[in-house]
Amino acid sequence: MPRKAKNPSTKDYVPVVPSPDQKYLTVKNAAAYLGCTVSFIRHELVYAKAVPHVRCGARIIFDRADLDAYMARQKAAA
To answer: What tens digit of pLDDT does each residue of 17-45 get?
Structure first.
C-alpha cells in the first residue's frame, strides 16, 4: 500500500482568488485577496483580533471592505 506524504509540496498550491463582485470572502479567499497565507489569517484572528470578521456557526466570513480598511491601517502603522 503506498504511503501518503506527510508534508505535501507547496508548489502545487494554487490560491483561490475571489471574483471581483464577491462581497463576502472565506478564510482561503481572504488570504488570497490579501496575498498572505491562511495560517497568517488564523493567527491574526486568534492572537491579534485585528481582522474584522463575522462568525456563521463554524465558518468565518470577511467583508471585502473591512479587509481593505484593515490593510490601510496596517499601511499607516508601518
So the answer is: 677 778 899 999 999 898 889 998 999 88
| 72 belongs to a structural domain | yes
pLDDT of residue 73: 86
Integer Cα distance of 32 and 62 in angstroms: 12
CA torsion sign for 76, 64, 25, 22 is: negative
Amino acid present at 20:
P
Q: Is residue 43 part of a domain?
A: yes
The number of distinct structural domains making up the chain is 1
Rounded to two decimals, what is the model's pTM?
A: 0.70
Q: Residue 63 sits in which domain range? A: 23-77
What is the separation, in whole angstroms, between the first and last Cα of the chain?
52
Q: Which of 37, 33, 35 is nearest to 24 (CA)?
A: 33
